[in-house]
Write a structure and sequence with these properties.
- The protein is mainly β.
- The protein has no helices and 19 strands.
Length: about 230
Amino acid sequence: ILSGLQDLYRTLDGGANGNQSWVKVAGYNMSVHSDQMNIVFDPSNIKIVYLANDGGVYRSTDNGENWSELNRGLVTSQMAEGIAISNSSVVVSVFHAGLVTTDNVFSRTPVWKGIPGGESQYNKGIAWEWTKTYADPKRTNVFYVFGTRLVRRILGSGISTTNIVPIGNFRPQAIAVDSRPDHDIILSSCREPDPNIPHELVPKIKRTLEGNSDTPVWSDEIVDQIRRDE
C-alpha cells in the first residue's frame, strides 16, 4: 500500500504492524517532492507506479520504493486563488510561488515573470502566496491584490515590477468596483478585530468614493444584524 498527504509512505504488509509497517519514500527532505496529489499503479505491471505531486510526475519500477522524475520539458503551476485578466494582461496567484504576470497572454509563447515583494499572511514580506486577484472592470490593466492589505497593481507597458500601491490597511476578502464611468466607488468586505471582544473578528464592508486615488479614504458601511460567521 502507498499512502500520503505531504509525505508518501509505503507498507509491504498492509499495515498489519501499525506505525512499524510504514516507511517514508517521498516528501520533505527527500529527492521526491512533497504534497502528494495522486497515485496510480500500472494495471499491467504491479511493480510500476506513477506519483503526481506539487513537483510534477514521478515513476517507480519497484513498487514505490525508489522514484525517478518524468518532468523533462514539463512546466506546471497550480493556481491558488483565481486569475485576473484585463485586455492582454494577466495577474495570477500561483501556489508556492506568489504572483506572476504577463502583458501578452494571447501570445503563443507569453513571457511570465514573478512580482517581487509580498503581503502574504503566511510569508509576510517574502511572497504574495495565498493572495487573491481581481481586475478592475473599467480601468485598463489595473488589478487589486488581496494580501494583508488591499494593494493595487498597475501594469505599464511591458512587464513591470513597480506601481504596486497599498490603498487600504485592512485585509480584504472580496471587492466590487462601480463600473459606471462617472463613479469612483469601491466596496470591499473584510474582518477586523472587535474592540470589545478580544480575539474576535467582526465582518465589515468598507466603502470609498475615491477609487482613482492612491490614498483613498475608507468608511465602514452600516450593516444590520450581520452574523460573525457570515
